[in-house]
Queue: 3 jobs
Job 1
Amino acid sequence: MPHFLIAQSELPAEREARRRRAGKSSGETYAATLEQIQPGVATTIVSPADDAAPALSTDRLAQFDAVFLTGSPMHVYDDGPAVRHQLDFMRRVFAAGIPSFGSCAGLQIAVAAAGGRIRKMPKRMEAGIARRIFPTEAGRNHPLLAGRPPGWDAPAIHGDEVAELPPGATLLASNAMTHVQAAEVRFDRGIFWGVQYHPELALREIAVAIAAQADDLIEAGLADHEDDVEAWANDLKALHDTPDDPALRWRLGVDGEFAEERLRRREIINFLSNLEALRG
């Protein structure tokens, strides 16, 4: 049975706040998702951004079958100890030659570690649903996006984005809001597949995140009142419980690619299916 390393970039206070809201830290969510996809899989969670976190050597990292990088509130363009710790960790993952996958901040960390650039989104945040994601020409035949239709929606909540991919990276998907929605990064001895959206999250977790950021959504002009945010979050929670409800799908403007858990997790499933090839 494979053994996966999950690296969460949330700091201790952020992890506890997420546990209070959603019941799990971002790393614990990833572990639960991987266990549901591959029952019995072994997972180890680390927090490389923490001041007291031990630095794992490349030899130790190479003992894992893959590394997963979670989302978090981390602003990768802020030059502070937490960001430097996280980027150093990711460079060791690349040096170890171990396949890695990440979502949201996980994508941004891998891109920055390989020499790319991250920025605050210039217009507004992308919140709740990333709409009309389309594969690039390279993405149409890339195994990360195998099975995706010509366009799809995905759970997302982020105010930062990739501004520039590093050398050796391939853009795989975009939409009107965020140019880099999916990418492959090759750096040093490693290969990373990542997405800006959240295939690992349950819809209830997205709903909780939306409700917790109501003030930010109103400030960004995405909602007029807290009641609007609450009603939208409640629809997401209801879709979590009844994903085949046609009225909820219509009201939220989504199809099965977003509503159905198996389809929503497609990129993670594809990554796991290709691990042997990625390890060379």
Note: Residues 203-258 form one domain.
Job 2
Amino acid sequence: MRVLGIDPGLTRCGLGVVEGGLGRPPRLVAVGVARTAAELPPARRLVQIEAALEEWIIEYRPEKVAVERVFAQHNVQTVVGTAQAAGVAMLVAARKGLPVELHTPSEVKAAITGSGRADKKQVGQMVTRILQLDAAPKPADAADALALAICHIWRGGAASRYAEAAAAGPGTNGYAQAVAEARRRQNPLSRTDRGVQ
């Protein structure tokens, strides 16, 4: 599975593409940041983010998109811009026919580090370790985008399989196995084939 992780932001929108799946450790495909100038009107900045996201989807051909779920912060202006960028990300993905999943910051931190309260430095260090990189991706928005993609591969994939099994119903072939596998994969940190010791 190839996932585009998006850490939405109006000034810096982190982008990371990771490939991985059952029995395969996550592998970095691409990482970067879409930047917009603060002096531009918000509408122009959103158009620039839209164009960058479309380019990434065309170039890297993700199968799924993972976007950070926006939470209220102390700075209302920051959260509004972040929410607008997240909306553009979801719109671009949906327009391209890609499934979109939202992941909370604490969900991503827990998936990557084992703690929902990890700081950005810890997330960056674990992303570096999981993807076997020489150095942590910078800025932090880029590392966060990769963390979102990894989280989705580990958790989103399991949730999707669980939903498919549940939709198929208990009387279907392989239902119990699918449910057991989905539940087991809800805790990716217990697996050694992911590059996390």
Note: Residues 2-157 form a domain with the Nucleotidyltransferase; domain 5 fold (CATH 3.30.420.10).
Job 3
Amino acid sequence: MQPRNMSMSGVVDLAAVKAAQEAKAKAEQARAEAARQGGGAPAGVSPASLVIDVDEAGFEHEVLQRSAEVPVVIDFWAEWCEPCKQLSPLLERLAQEYNGRFLLAKIDVDANQMLMQQFGVQGIPAVFAVVAGQALPLFQGAAPEAQIRQTLDQLIQVGEERFGLTGLVVDPDAQGQQAPVAAEVPAGPYDALLEAAVRALDAGDLAGAVQAYKNVLSDDPGNTEAKLGLAQAELLQRVQGLDPQQVRKDAADRPADVAAQIAAADLDLVGGHVEDAFGRLIDAVKRTAGDDRDAARVRLLELFDVVGSDDPRVTAARTALARVLF
């Protein structure tokens, strides 16, 4: 989704937001219809594709990029590690059982020392996850199965609620390693609420549009149209009333001021300067720590939602952010 047509010249261009939403909705409707009719719908991945061996050369594609579609669980292991021989088969079995809700990436630490260092692995087995380009530790050692299941369930919930990751479609008859396909989310009875949000945007009622989208998401956290609309409406709400010239002056004069950089990034995105907005916030994350760093990171994730996870600039920025964080 491209916010290229949004502008901030004294007023907010609401028509661009509506057009972007309608285009996305039509695309999703067409995919869903094709899936129902079986007319050229993409095949799912094979069950064997849910467990993959990853090395340093393939990490960006197999883990970082794929984490924009499905949570990726990373199993750091080695042939000589006895606890790994207990944990790895369990994780592989759960990957099959969860049937596309997460992807298991196995990394041999002996052959991939750089990845081990980047993740700060102190001992193995160690299990991490990458969700939408963000890495987080899960557990270390051969944990009980019940604990592992609970951790996986929480991971999947975070992926769905915060990033709309609904997993992969698995086709038992598929063969070989195929590109992952995002699972389709059944449409809910939210047409009236979504239409109310669009009407609020048309009327210039950004607060009303924000609330209407939140009403949908409170019942259906993974609704992609509502997530996109909310992200865009909140962005437009933030920049409304700002003095662009003053915001840019503040950002230039105070490069270490995270609030100033966040405000400038919002204006960059509204003006269609997507790479500038992403780059500004990635630099802020790199230069800061603590609450300031987290504020810049969270705003960057919000701007990813505005642009859309299928945009290659978002994929590139997620990779750059992961490199800065880890």
Note: Residues 14-37 form the longest helix (24 residues).
